[in-house]
Amino acid sequence: MIKKNFLFLLLLISISTYAQKVKIAGVVTDSKHYPISFVSVVQANSLNGVYTNNQGFYELQAASKDSIKIIFSSVGYKKHIYILPDLSEDVILDVVLQEEDKVLNTVVIEGQRTVTTVIERVDYLATKRASNPWRSIEALLATMGGVSSTNELSSQYSVRGGNFDENIVYVNGIEIYRPFLVRSAQQEGLSFINPNMVQTVGFSAGGYSAEYGDKMSSVLDITYKKPKRFEGAASASLLGGDIYIGSSTDRFSQVTGFRYKTLRSLLGTSDTKAEYDPSFLDFQTYITYSLSSGWNASFLGNYSQNTYKFTPTTRETSFGTLMTPRTFKVYFDGWENDKFLTYQAALTINGKLNDNFNIGFTASAFSSDEQERYDIEGSYLLKETDLTGEGYENKTVLGVGTYHDHARNKLKSNVYTFSHFGNLRIDKNLIKWSLSYQKEEISDKIKEWEMRDSAGYSLPSNGKEVNLYSNLKSDNRIIPSRISGYIQDTYTFETGEGLFILNAGLRGSYWSFNKEFIVSPRGALAFVPAGIENLSFRIAGGVYYQAPFYKEFQHVLSINGNNIVELNKDIKSQKSVHLVLGSDYYLGGDKEQNIPPYKLSGEIYYKKLSDLVPYTVNNVKIRYSGENESKGYSMGVDVKLYGEFIPGADSWVSISLMKAQQKIEGVDVPLPTDQRFNLALFYQDYFPGYERLKMSLRGLWSQGLPVSAPHKGYESGYFRTPAYKRIDLGFSWLILGEDFSIRNKNSGLKAFRNIWLGLDVFNLFDMQNTNTYYWVTDVYNQQYAVPNYLTGRQLNVKLLAEF
Questions:
Q1: CA 573, CA 575: separation in Å to the nearest integer?
Q2: 187 by DSSP, 3-state: which?
Q3: Would you say 371 and 307 are in contact if contact means Cβ atoms under 8 Å apart?
């Protein structure tokens, strides 16, 4: 009897155990719906896993529970994570894996790539559904260590104490230029870089190699994609829209993008009430063609039209402290009409002479036609107010008057470049070189003035005559030429201590305008200790010049009360000597579970600056003094933690500490971009069980920038703007995914890979960030700084379709 009961108990246990098992089965295919074999299908945090067969079929047994996570992975494809929220019965789960755009490297190889040239690979894919006004690469860069951006309307950024002009940008090896007359972010328009067309993004905040040009701060190296098949995407939102198409054959590939953006809704959140009519258009194409075995031709073309029309009506700004609250109110009359047209094109032919010897030739041209016209008159009242009872009552009138701003500015520029480049591999050496000739044509006609009147007195008032508060006139034309080139060697060797990568190079340049020849030696040494592949060290440095181009050598002379722009032929290149110490450490992760490790990166740097041309920054316009009359330094530390805090979603946090000083006329003052701290966060998440709903958050917090009174340098006194604080939050819902397309092959929507619906909340907490100041001057020449606030909270709805 006992034996029978025991057998019956074993049978119950067996039945119960079997009942707790469910089957998950399906087919894994690629984007063309072809089955993929040998795909790893693993239950997260367990040893339970299988591989797909030749037909892409798999069958996985799993214990019944509330929720499990299944990971699909294969070399050459992007990892896919699927969460089953309620596993109580058998499940049919078909999955589509996307081909991996980026080349996957081991930790050691990635370390070599990073530490050799001090170029960090940036995950640009995170911007596609991220919440930021531009969906731009630059908005992502603002969250990197050492990078600062304090104006959400602009794509410009500063790096380690340098200004916007000190950052060099390449797309497929072609240097990119931006319009020169732009003075406010509202005028700026679209960034050159089209995120839809990007294949890889490399960025260095300092210590980069000789192959990158003559700039003092940073290099952004963009490579556009060469599609392997037909692809495309289209998006639309309250801020504009874009579309791109890519295709390829055996010998031909092309990717073409069109973008449109408007700031009307964003600018509507500012203090100035106006009729805004900003319109920004951009068209780009990148075409490649295989001429023969080993030889290729490529063409990069861009057309950009940025127009900005502005008719202000009123403005009311409240500022000050609790003890001294103030109100600034203006009634406007007038208009502004700006237009910036830019064209850029480049043709490249490159090929192999043999397996180790490659050469190429590039011809490129850049042209811009810029016009800035405005006549704006404002009648203002500045008063100190007191909060009593239920509202405000006048306490003291601080200033009453009018002002009139006028400009008729034109600038045309053309830059033609012809270059030869090549590389040769000899044993463990990779030798690279380039030689370029550049012709520049720049002409400008600047006519602008500002009149201020306070209580019936024209400022500055002397009681005898009517004077303009400020004026500027320029009528200059230059046609200089520039010759530049570099040679560098990368040598890799191993010892018992570990792997070493040495990069050393020399760069030279001659400019006919000032007849200056500059030489820049640069080098970097990387070390990966033997047996510790998750740790690497690097040291890099060299001499970096900021070769004058257009704005740096404009010197303003005052003649009989008129300010005339004179070109300084004695100008020298600004100079920066870099020393960078860095390290990368990979921690955590699980190779068996295909969980990538976290990456902790840190850099300590020092930049010695000399022959500086002092400048002031007003919005995004940099005004140089035109003379090499200061020197200084920049030093600091950048730390970044990168990884998947949530599986399948890349996130990172960066912290930067910096001090950037200069000495002008014996006075120590901060550089205009000096920020003692900068904290940035980019975080992505999804809801467990609802992976179709994703969230992204971008947060910035940095110290305010130094500000001086208008038409005066920082040596005459300065103060800082309040800290810049901003959080953008975005939600994206996958309303149509590839799994839907597979199950519904007869559906009219089967042509779409994905359709996303997004909701963004810009400036989530409606923080008042100060961009610049409007200065009110009374008859006693006392000045009051009225803050110009940036945009407030704004909602945006967007739709993204990929096909």
A1: 6
A2: helix
A3: no
**Segment (H or E) for 13:** helix 2-19
pTM of the model: 0.82
Residue type, 238: L
Tokens 């998950």 correspond to 24
The length of the chain, given as a count of residues:
803
d(CA 159, CA 203): 11
The matching CATH number, chosen from 2.60.40.10, 1.10.3720.10, 2.30.110.10, 3.40.50.2300, for 2-96 is 2.60.40.10
Per-residue model confidence (pLDDT) at position 50: 78
What percent of the chain is helix, strand and coil (3-state, nearest 5)? 10, 60, 30
Whole-number pLDDT of residue 80:
83
The full DSSP string for 745-778 is TTSTTTT-SEEEEEEEEESTT----EEEEEEEE-
Element at 348 (helix H, strand E)? strand 325-354
CA angle 669, 670, 672 (to 5 degrees): 125
Residue 556 scores a pLDDT above 60 = yes
Any idea what the Cα angle at residue 344 is, between residues 341 and 348, rounded to 5°? 175
Q: How many CB atoms lie within 10 A of CB 688?
A: 11
At residue 728, what are phi and psi to the nearest 5 degrees? Answer: -110, 135
Which two three-digit tokens encode residue 37?
A: 């074999």
In angstroms, rounded to a whole number, what is the distance separating the alpha carbons of residues 410 and 589? 57
**Band of the pLDDT at 735, cuts 50, 70, 90?**
confident
Q: Are 50 and 24 in contact (CB under 8 A)?
A: no
User: Which part of the chain has CATH 2.40.170.20?
Assistant: 107-788
Which helix (H) or strand (E) element contains residue 19?
helix 2-19
| Average pLDDT taken over every residue of the chain | 84
CB 235 within 8 A of CB 802: no
d(CA 800, CA 237): 9
Q: Nearest-CA neighbor of 772 among 789, 755, 747, 756?
A: 789
Tokens 């005028």, residue? Answer: 187
Q: Which of 527, 487, 489 is nearest to 508 (CA)?
A: 487
Per DSSP, the chain holds a count of helices (H) and strands (E) of 6, 48
* Residues β-bridged to residue 394: 385
- The angle formed by the CA atoms of residues 128, 134 and 137, to the nearest 5 degrees, is 60
Residue whose pair of structure tokens reads 């030489």 in the numeric block:
519
d(CA 219, CA 160): 12
Q: Which pLDDT tens digit goes with each residue over 120-146? A: 777 666 555 555 555 788 888 888 889
**Residue 245 CA to its chain's centroid (Å):** 23
Q: How far apart are CA 132 and CA 764, in angstroms?
A: 11
Tell me the C-alpha distance between 19 and 26, whole Å: 21
8 A C-beta contact, residue 727 and residue 699? yes
CATH 2.60.40.10 in the chain, residue ranges: 2-96
The Cα–Cα gap between 412 and 785 comes to 34
Predicted confidence band at 100 (pLDDT cuts at 50, 70, 90)? low
Give the C-alpha separation, 589 to 597, whole Å. 4
**Does domain 107-788 correspond to CATH entry 3.10.150.10?**
no
User: 189, exposed or middle or buried, with CB in 10 Å at 0-12, 13-18, 19+?
Assistant: buried
Q: Check residue 117 and give left, alpha or beta (phi > 0: left; psi -120 to 50: alpha).
A: alpha
DSSP state of 520: E
